[in-house]
Structures are given as structure tokens and as C-alpha cells.
Amino acid sequence: MDIITHALLGAAIAPRQELALPMAITSTIPDWWTVPPIVEYLWQHRGRFNNQDFWRWVPARYTELTRWSHSLVVLATACAVGYGIFRTSPWIFLPWLLHLIIDIPTHASSRTGYLFYPWSCWQPLGAVNWYEVWWFSIVTILSLGTVVFFRFLHQ
Ligand SMILES: [Zn+2]
After folding, report:
1. How many CB atoms sit inside 10 A of residue 142's CB?
2. How many angstroms separate the CA atoms of 144 and 137, rounded?
3. Distance 155 CA to ligand 1 centre (A)
């Protein structure tokens, strides 16, 4: 799914207002590594974006980082470190898990969803790519934005 929907979902499920922003940020962690190559690609191609060309062009270091950030192994490690050392609220990591679950049906040709990476490159794939059904992203962004607005921002 797109990164805005992930952020809004993380905020929407926050149990308290003060957790809305941290949970929105946690929800986007797996996709952080997709932003720098998009910016770099647009810079090199003077603002013109071609999806197929982009995926051939993406440097391997970004693909590798995205595989790690979409792994349940890394999420479990982050939970253990966050809770075990810093005593962070367990709620903080729920949006990261939801991100990984939602990415399964919305990525039909992803190179990122290796859930047990680096132990395994097994990859569950959905039927469609979220960016091919563009109206679905708009509907979810508007719906989740409304939920977040009335739960936390309109108080
Ligand atoms: Zn993702």
C-alpha cells in the first residue's frame, strides 16, 4: 500500500492521542527506504517518472534495506530491543506489523515482501499492485484521514 495510507492507519488505530504521531511514524518505517531512490530518480530524470524504468534502475542497496525493513525477523528484533531496553509501549510496533500484513494483498510484483528475510526469500504476493488501482488509495486515504481528523485533530 502507499506510504500515506500506512501512516494514517497507524494514527487511526492509536489508543491515545499522544501515540497517534509515533504510531503513524512506526507504520511507515518499512517504506522509508523507498523514498530516497524515488527522489534520486526524479532528480536524475528531471522530474519524469517511468515505473518500469525506475524498478530496473533502483540501486541494490535500497532494495536490500527494504527487504530487511519488511521482515518479521527485523520487526521482532525491534520489538525486543524497544520493549526490553527502552520500555516502549508495545502498541508502537502494531502499525509496523499491520504494514507488513497489508502489503501482502496490495503487492503483486514486489521485491520487498520477504517476511522471513534474511532466513528465507519466500514471498506471499497479492493479486494486484496498489498503484495500479489508484482510486483505492484515494478512497482509503480519505477514509482514514477522516477517522484521524475526528479522533485526534478535531478536539
Ligand atoms: Zn511496504
Report:
1. 11
2. 10
3. 31
Averaged pLDDT score across all residues of the chain = 89
The domain total for the chain is 1
Whether 23 maps to a domain, the answer reads: yes
What separation in Å is there between the alpha carbon of 62 and the centre of ligand 1?
13
The Å distance, Cα 33 to ligand 1 centre, comes to: 9
Q: Is residue 155 part of a domain?
A: no
pTM of the model: 0.86
Ligand 1 is an ion; residues with CB less than 5 A from it: 30-31, 103
pLDDT tier, 112 (very low <50, low <70, confident <90, very high otherwise)? low
Taking the CB of residue 154, how many other CB atoms lie within 10 A of it? 8
Q: How far is the CA of 66 from the centre of ligand 1 (A)?
A: 8
Distance separating alpha carbons of residues 93 and 153, to the nearest angstrom: 22
Flag whether pLDDT at 90 surpasses 80.
no
Q: At what angle do helices 3-12 and 94-103 cross, to 10 degrees?
A: 140
Range of the structural domain that residue 136 is part of = 3-150
Q: How far is the CA of 30 from the centre of ligand 1 (A)?
A: 5
Residue 114 Cα to ligand 1 midpoint, Å, equals 11
